[in-house]
Design a protein that fits this description.
Blueprint (H helix, E strand, L loop, with lengths): L6 E4 L4 E5 L10 E3 L3 H9 L6 H20 L12 H13 L6 H15 L6 H34 L9 E5 L14 H10 L3 E7 L6 H13 L4 E4 L4 H7 L4 E4 L3 E3 L4 E4 L2 H11 L3 E4 L5 E2 L14 H9 L12 E4 L6 E4 L2 E4 L8 H5 L4
Parallel strand pairs: 4-5, 4-7, 5-6, 7-10, 8-11, 10-13
Antiparallel strand pairs: 1-2, 2-3, 8-9, 9-12, 13-14
Bound molecules: 5-S-methyl-1-O-phosphono-5-thio-D-ribulose (MRU).
The site of 5-S-methyl-1-O-phosphono-5-thio-D-ribulose has 17 residues, from α2 and β9.
Length: about 375
Amino acid sequence: MSKLRALVYDPNEVTLKVLDQLLVPHQKVYIPVPTVASAHAVIKRMNVRGAPLIALVALLGLTCDIVSKHGTSDAAGDGDPGLEGYVMECVGTLKTSRPTAVNLFNAMDELEAVVKKLNGKGVVKAVKELAERYLEEDLASNISLGNHGAKAIENMWSESNPKDGLNLMTICNTGALATAGYGTALGIVRSLHKEGKLGSLGVLETRPYNQGARLTAFEAVEEGFPSARLIVDSAAPAYMRGRVVHAAVVGADRVVRNGDTANKIGTYALAIHCKEHGVPFFVACPSTTVDLKVETGGGITIEDRGADELRKAAGAPEGIETWNPAFDVTPAELITGIVTERGVVWKGEDGEFDLEGFLGGQG
Ligand code: MRU
């Protein structure tokens, strides 16, 4: 568990504040999130980001919003005939914040289903319990998937017994700042580090928002990961050619039925470089990031962050047009294994992932 907190939630006072990740690592400023409008705003502006964290902030923001109006008793909100409608409206609003990470949509759909069954009784209590359960489960599932991933990579290289530890690469930020506090792909790194088996970590800067340079580098320094190095995105293949890299580990915003995976723009390039250099490429995510409703990567909506953000980040002139997708899709064929809290999904003899079989029809 990291010392860093992307969100601070008080279940007694029912308050939420989030670390403004646009200011990290230079400042640590927390933004209060008392309403659905403020939850929507911090997600959309990317003050908070990362697939699991987005879902948590949406759930907890909605909880704070309705608790502030109705309190926390078992019957809170029962006298308000408009409450169910209000919650549904909030769900609709929160779903418009960012389109690619499925965690938000899964969380909102579950909340909607729970509330609809209540016939107006105990809505506030049920929303609060659901949000708090997600918070607890995210941490537990990250620890579990971190340990599964670490073991899988250790086993893969056990015969060559790398005495200086395992050398990993990663992109974007998938750590404590993207989750409830442990991380997915960076959770694997954390688990290896805990066992004293991490040799080095190559951190891609992750243009144009630099989540690698600002956030993962920050976590790596805070955690004291050995030989953690920041690398510009375009140096990835040269880095792999010049040294032994045992695995690349990346997160996911949505893994679809055939294993195609949407993640931060640049992930696809990293996977291609891994293939070229014989480096195993692992996707790490809780099973709540798997979307069995979508067959292949072509069905994933990819967010475009627009021209202003890219021009500003790149120092480009006003007149230039842009194409600024926040994510890309890595085809399943480039993925070695998908690490979840339930274990690692490997390809079958047919060379395909069977995510539905692995997850037992859920996810
Ligand atoms: O645009 P961001 O910063 O929200 O993108 C985040 C990523 O792509 C992460 O890799 C993904 O959400 C997994 S976080 C555990």
